[in-house]
Amino acid sequence: MHLIQQIFFIICAGVAIYLFAKKVGSIRRNILLGRDEDLNDNPGARWKNMTLLALGQKKMFKKPVPALLHIAVYVGFIIINAEVAEIILDGILGKHRLFAPFLGPVYGYLIGFFEILAVLVLVSCAIFLIRRNILHVRRLWMKELNGWPKSDANYILITEIVLMSLLLTMNAADQILQARGVEHYLATSPFWVSSHLTGLFDGMSTGALIALERTCWWLHIVGILAFLNYLPYSKHFHIILAFPNAYYTRLIPQGEMKNMKDIQNEVLYMMQPELAPPPAEGAPAQHRFGAKDVQDLSWKNLLDAYSCTECGRCTSSCPANLTGKALSPRKIMMDTRDRLEEVGRNIDKNKEFQDDGKSLVHDYITVEELRACTTCNACVEACPVGIEPLSIINQLRRYLVMEESNSPQEWNLMFSNIENNMAPWKFSPDERDRWAEEMGAS
Amino acid sequence: MAEYAANGEMPEVLFWVGCAGSFDQRAQRITKAFATILDKVGVKFAILGKEEMCTGDPARRAGNEFLFQMMAYNNIQTMNMYGIQKIVTACPHCFNILKNEYPALGGNYEVIHHTTFLQQLINDGRVRLKEAGGFKGKKITYHDSCYLGRANNIYEAPRAVLEALDVELVEMKRCRTNGLCCGAGGAQMFKEEEAGDTRVNWDRTAEAVETGAKVIAANCPFCTTMLVDGVKKQEKEDDIAVLDIAEMVAQSLAD
Ligand code: SF4
Ligand code: SF4
User: Fold this and answer.
1) Ligand 2 atom closest to the CA of A333, numbered from 1
2) Mean pLDDT, 10 residues at a time, over chain A (442 residues)?
3) TM spans, by residue (chain A) (predicted)?
4) pLDDT of residue A79
């Protein structure tokens, strides 16, 4: 009987880990579809960012209440997973509470501590559910979240609540069995939380209790393995990707826009033809200016898209969104991820990407959204994991203007004024220092 | 600048006026105020005059990299020819692009925003302010521009100048890193806003007006324009002034 359980467990864990690794591999491939960008400079500053932003969740504390709840879930989740190590070993070796004999009374305290964390996680997740579904916090109740994103968030919260309840029930049953001296259930010191729950199950027969304990154990661990595999399909992948994303986040001032070296050179050779290199044979074909689709973005933009947790902190600080414009930086990130997943599926199916007549601009993100951005950087500043929606917006705008000549009439006027009058308005360059003459005269 | 060069001299600093500061009537007053301060305290400064061109910021932000690169190329040629080392500008958009984006194209200068420059002049005792200036004890709120604030992390210098003016600074709820945009950036200044419920500048100005401040202090000619429009929308133009920090300093200079 034990052997069957052991084998079944090993198969479950093996399949779960294999599937997870496979999905992570395909996400990695998708991210690397993006253009190259070298972000390996200054590792000191990068480690610091990772520690502060991802581990320390520094930016979360701009909103202290959700930050505290979030940290409870996060710390609880990570630490309780230490217990999963024991559970997995128990499962493989067919043991029960493998570590207990080694740790003596400390074991009871440790589990007790885990249980307190479990309660914190449970309560925090319940509050999160209330905020999302009953209080309707604006950023968590916008139309771009309708459908899957909203369910995704709720599934995760409910799963966590279920997992924590299973853990507590399992421990409570365990302790009654210990007290009854049932074989296999060796005595530990009382667990802090579940020792108060034993009353709920006291009336059950030993056989029923063993069944309950085993069922909870199995559901808990299978739940965790399922959760692991759910992650990469969900916004909750951020619990992993927040770390690399914070590491690779921008170190240069937020105001600095990326230079386009190819255009710089083109202008240089136009102005000083003597500097132009002789046309090289077989030079790589010019890629497109700006970004039309996900492959034109940098790999960091794509990593951003997978790291986004759809919290909406960016959108709730976006001046365009706050005044009712179509733009929402969160939607920019969600669209980029959705399109990238679609391109990934296309590649899975056809070996390489086959044109599907769609692109990130137009089919996912509209011109109206892009036009509304004031490049104010509020979204970049707000993001707790160092995502830059503005970087994507800027590249899509470059594509619109330079490849499609798609710009509003007023901008075309501004462009031609700059070109002809060296100023965005229709003034003669001769009047540029008129103010100084006026001052001199007065 | 041409005059300095002709005499074989080098000014202490180049004042980059920018297009708004040169042509826009409201912004010209900021330019004049800042130039007056520099004159008065004896800072030797030059302007490029007719040789200055748009930095290319609105073109680049709108997506027109070609046009930006052409403007940048010409400006860098001019400034490198004169051997410019240090630039001060009263426009945070010019400041950002000159400081952060010209170096990649071969334009390396020390670039300072005018509020930082004013703070230094006050600290060094070169700018001396009236004991009881017109702003002493007045309720004033300060609007962080995006390109000085979030883009370049400069939040304290302008506030330090206001402190030197002895004002009663009342912050808006959204200030510093959380400051709300005026709505002009990203080349929005040059087009109608997209369809929405309200305008960004109306929203921002309403917030500023709510503080009960008599003056809204700004550091950017575009923000100034936007806020002036917002104050008009609220029909408060007789009670509330929108002033650039340079204008406030110019009005408070000791004789
Ligand atoms: S940079 Fe653009 S998208 Fe981001 S907050 Fe500002 S206006 Fe919104
Ligand atoms: S981009 Fe950042 S702030 Fe915006 S929803 Fe995603 S995680 Fe939240």
Assistant:
1) 1
2) 84 95 97 95 96 92 93 87 84 87 88 93 96 93 93 95 94 93 88 92 93 94 92 94 96 95 92 82 72 97 98 97 98 98 97 96 98 98 97 98 96 97 95 92 54
3) 6-21, 67-89, 109-131, 216-233
4) 84
Residue A312 Cβ < 6 Å to ligand 2? yes
Beta-carbon separation of A326 and B194 below 8 A: yes
For residue A133, report the phi and psi dihedrals to the nearest 5 degrees.
-105, -20
Q: Of the bound ligands, which one is closest to the alpha carbon of residue A318? A: 1
Residue with tokens 């400034």: B79
Query: Strand pairing partners for B54?
Result: none
Do A266 and B104 count as a contact with CB atoms less than 8 A apart?
Answer: no
Buried b / exposed e along A372-382 (16+ C-beta atoms within 10 A)? bbbbbbbbbbb
Burial (CB count within 10 angstroms: exposed 0-12, middle 13-18, buried 19+), residue A291: buried
Query: Angle CA(A191)–CA(A195)–CA(A198) in degrees, nearest 5?
Result: 145
Instruction: Assign domain A2-31+63-247 to a CATH class.
Output: mainly alpha
Q: Which residues of B touch A286 (CB under 8 A)?
A: none
CB contact under 8 A, B197 and A439: no
Cα gap A419→B74, rounded to integer Å: 12
Dihedral (Cα; A274, A278, A279, A281), 10-degree rounding: -170
Q: What is the pLDDT of residues B185-217, one digit of tens each?
A: 999 999 999 999 999 999 999 999 999 999 999
Please give the torsion angle defined by the CA atoms of residues A156, A157, A158 and A162, in that order, rounded to the nearest 10 degrees.
Answer: 100
ipTM value, please give it. 0.96
* C-alpha to C-alpha distance for A153 and A143, rounded to whole angstroms: 14
Closest ligand relative to B178 C-alpha: 1
DSSP run (H or E) holding B244: strand B241-244
A424 Cβ under 8 Å from any chain B Cβ: yes
Query: How many residues make up chain A in this entry?
Result: 442
CA–CA separation, A270 and A11 (whole Å)? 65
Token readout for A151 is: 């369910």
Distance, CA of A127 to CA of A83 (rounded, Å) = 25
Q: Which single residue is written with the structure tokens 């997978």?
A: A306
Q: Is A394–B50 a contact, with Cβ atoms under 8 angstroms apart? A: no
Q: Are the C-beta atoms of B181 and B148 separated by less than 8 Å?
A: no
pLDDT band at B15 (very low <50, low <70, confident <90, very high): very high
* Paired strand residues for A35: A298
Please report, for chain A, the start and end positions of each structural domain, with discontinuous segments joined by +: 2-31+63-247, 261-277+285-429
CB B248 within 8 A of CB B165: yes
Interface of B with A in 144-183 (CB under 8 A): 146-147, 150-153, 177-178, 180-181, 183
SS3 A77: helix
Residue A401 phi, psi dihedral angles, 5° rounding: -75, -45
Dihedral over Cα of A284, A285, A286, A288: its sign: negative
| Interface contact A433-B50, CB threshold 8 A | yes
Which residues make Cβ contacts (< 8 Å) with residue A259, sequence separation at least 6?
A: B101, B104, B105
Whole-number pLDDT of residue B64: 98
Beta bridge partners of B14: B46, B87
3-state secondary structure of B140: strand
Q: Which of residues 86-125 of B touch A (CB under 8 A)?
A: 96, 100-101, 104-105
Q: Which CATH architecture has domain A261-277+285-429?
A: Orthogonal Bundle (1.10)
Q: What's the whole-number mean pLDDT along residues B30-54?
A: 96
Q: What six digits make up the tokens of B202?
A: 């109306």
Instruction: Report the pLDDT averaged over residues B9-23.
Output: 96
Give the three-state DSSP class for B88: strand
